Amino acid sequence: MSTPVLEVSEELVARYRTRAPRYTSYPTAPQFGPLPEGAVAAALGRNDGPLSAYVHIPFCKSLCHYCGCHVEIHARRSVGAGYVDTVLAEADLVAARLQPGRQLDQLALGGGTPTFLEPDDMARLVDGLRARWPFTPTADISIEVDPRTIDAAYLDRLVDIGFGRYSFGVQDFDAAVLEAVHRAQPADLTLSAVRTLRERGNFDLNFDLMYGLPHQTPESFRTTLDVVVAMRPTRIALFLYAHVPWMKPAQKLVEKHGIPDAALRSRLFVLANEVLGAAGYETIGMDHFALPGDALLAAQASGTLQRNFMGYTTRAGLDQIGLGVSAIGSFGGVYAQDLKDREAWTARVTAGELPIERGFVLSADDTRRRSVIMELFCNFQVVLAPGEFPDERARLAPMLADGFVVLDADTVTVTPLGRHFIRNVCAVFDRYLEADAGARRYSHTA
Ligand SMILES: C[S@@+](CC[C@H](N)C(=O)[O-])C[C@H]1O[C@@H](n2cnc3c(N)ncnc32)[C@H](O)[C@@H]1O
Ligand code: SF4
């Protein structure tokens, strides 16, 4: 059953306007710094068992002005060939430090735009990874697809390569919204990609949607949502536009068109929940939806839903390897992020060194706080040990009074209203945020 989502008052939004991270990791990336010598190699060698890998492909043909991802704009796809060589060389460096015999239980290609690669380069990349780490029989192999970069032949190739889950960047179908953010993408493009894949097999399809973009109104967004549900993707990720122009200067171009205020954003979110709920979608965590039968829903029901840099996932506890510029890995109690600058990253790999720029070694306290924050984000409930986190319990008091959470003995439960403010609730357990106050800026939380 979907939980009803409540509209939030402007007064509440104003009062909780303090910005907070999205917690795809804890500690969050701004806390990352230099790693002690040998820490990454030691952490890579620490564990055994199946692996998860994320490969970052930074290239795009044109820049969507809202984009918060690490991207490079290129006219020619050929830039991808050398990049794939370097990713595979990086995989060798990683494999040499892992215990032998490890297999991939999950592979995700993201970006940027993975489908910017020439199909042959894509096949070389996946075959190369498979040669280093064979896939488990149940491996989840997924790719982010920009419908503007593919045709039926490319999709056929992706199916042959072995991708089972396809995530389409849709954002909105409204022409005025798309024009304001510099992304021309007629609905027909998405529809024909969906049809092609459906003819080829029973694949999991995800749509990325965004709310909080210029010119979005409840009417326009309802029309978009109606088109979306008619295409019946198995999953939908509904992202709140993260406006961080101090980090992504192109977003100032979005600002010019006027960004919906907090009240409108809230209305759009509630509307999406209503339309998707009426169409049979159930909510997952903060901002995902899925049709009954989806593995994420089963994971949510059994309390095993996880969250990582790839979003919500069913694969709990796997070491996560990051390959490619800016990619973040999480393994053996360490976060490690690759260099963002492609030249520097290439030079480091070519020199036979792991291209890690920065990271974090988690203490026992960090690990416990991470599990509390992730449980709240995924399952909206966490059980604390008796007497654990006394200061944090005290800091939850205003949120108890505002009806965001219920504290029953040692169990913290986030209410439907509190889901709007899940980032604020989690921030209570973030021991670095206070120390950081004023030094960092995050996007709006609702
Ligand atoms: C790497 S992109 C998607 C793949 C492909 N490049 C495309 O655009 O179709 C991943 C998703 O991140 C989301 N996204 C990008 N910038 C964002 C921002 N500033 N705030 C919230 N979501 C954002 C978009 O929904 C986008 O589809
Ligand atoms: S949204 Fe996708 S296509 Fe657009 S700039 Fe970002 S990564 Fe590239």
Count of beta strands:
19
Q: At the first level of CATH, what is the class of the largest domain?
A: Alpha Beta
**Strand line-up of the largest beta sheet:** 9-10-8-7-6-5-4-1-13
* CATH topology assignment of the largest domain: pyruvate-formate lyase- activating enzyme
| Total discrete domains | 2
Report the principal-axis shape. globular
- Sheet having the most strands: 9 strands, mixed
- Helix count? 17
Corresponding CATH architecture of the largest domain: Alpha-Beta Horseshoe
| Straight-line N-to-C gap | 23 Å
List the SSEs and their pairings.
Layout: H1 10-15, H2 39-46, E1 51-57, E2 59-60, E3 72-73, H3 79-95, E4 104-111, H4 119-132, E5 135-145, H5 152-161, E6 165-171, H6 175-180, H7 187-200, E7 204-211, H8 218-231, E8 235-240, H9 252-255, H10 262-278, E9 282-284, E10 288-290, H11 295-301, E11 306-308, E12 311-313, E13 319-323, E14 328-331, E15 334-338, H12 342-350, E16 356-361, H13 364-379, E17 381-383, H14 390-395, H15 397-401, E18 405-408, E19 411-414, H16 422-427, H17 433-436
Parallel strand pairs: 1-4, 1-13, 2-3, 4-5, 5-6, 6-7, 7-8
Antiparallel strand pairs: 8-10, 9-10, 11-12, 14-15, 15-16, 17-19, 18-19
Bound molecules: S-adenosylmethionine and iron/sulfur cluster.
S-adenosylmethionine binds at residues 60, 66-69, 110-113, 144, 146, 169, 171, 208, 210, 239, 241-242.
